């Protein structure tokens, strides 16, 4: 999983499988969401205040390029990294591997959002700094 410092493991569950015997395409988005949340909890959120702020996001865009079907019981690894932090948004990149083979790539954009005002808000400075520090350490590890 070259280039990804955050790896989230999963095992395919029976409920993830569709009538054609592989992971349903919609389930990939649940996998990606789980990996992003794990990234946030373990990289960027060091306290309850930061966690509450990070949960005030809204998913603005997500796309997934399927490469290979994933089957029941396979070990799945989801790499997550932040490609860009804008004024109000964070762009994530994902790589999904199953049993060591590329299964999908994805990208998602989350926007910090003020639900009371119904508009985007600025990415918190402490969040930005933690993510930038984490990503810089990962790039220094011999990508």
Describe the structure.
It is a single chain. The protein has helices spanning 25-44, 48-54, 125-139, and strands at residues 6-11, 57-66, 75-85, 89-98, 101-114, 119-120. With 143 residues, the protein is an alpha+beta fold. It has a single domain (6-139), classed as Roll (Thiol Ester Dehydrase, Chain A), CATH 3.10.129. Strands 1, 2, 3, 4, 5 and 6 form a six-stranded antiparallel sheet that branches. The radius of gyration is 16 Å and the shape is globular. The model has no long low-confidence stretch (mean pLDDT 89).
Topology of this structure?
Blueprint: E1 6-11, H1 25-44, H2 48-54, E2 57-66, E3 75-85, E4 89-98, E5 101-114, E6 119-120, H3 125-139
Antiparallel strand pairs: 1-3, 2-5, 3-4, 4-5, 5-6
Protein traits:
143 residues; alpha+beta; Thiol Ester Dehydrase, Chain A; 6-stranded antiparallel sheet; 3 helices; 29% helix; 37% strand
Apparent shape: globular
Mean pLDDT: 89
User: What is the CATH C level class, in words?
Assistant: Alpha Beta
Segments where pLDDT lies below 50 for 5+ residues? Answer: none
Quick synopsis:
This protein has helices at 25-44, 48-54, 125-139; strands spanning 6-11, 57-66, 75-85, 89-98, 101-114, 119-120. By secondary structure, it is of the alpha+beta class.
């Amino acid at each position: 999983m070259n280039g990804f410092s955050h790896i989230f493991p999963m095992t395919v569950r029976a409920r993830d499988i569709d009538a054609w015997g592989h992971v349903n395409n919609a389930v990939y988005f649940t996998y990606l969401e789980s990996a992003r949340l794990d990234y946030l909890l373990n990289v960027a959120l060091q306290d309850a205040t930061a966690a509450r702020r990070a949960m005030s996001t809204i998913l603005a865009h997500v796309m997934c390029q399927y490469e290979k079907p994933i089957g029941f019981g396979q070990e799945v690894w989801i790499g997550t990294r932040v490609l860009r932090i804008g004024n109000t948004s964070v762009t994530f990149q994902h790589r999904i591997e199953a049993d060591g083979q590329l299964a999908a790539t994805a990208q998602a954009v989350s926007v910090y959002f003020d639900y009371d005002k119904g508009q985007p808000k600025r990415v918190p400075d402490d969040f930005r700094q933690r993510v930038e520090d984490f990503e810089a350490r990962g790039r220094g590890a011999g990508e």
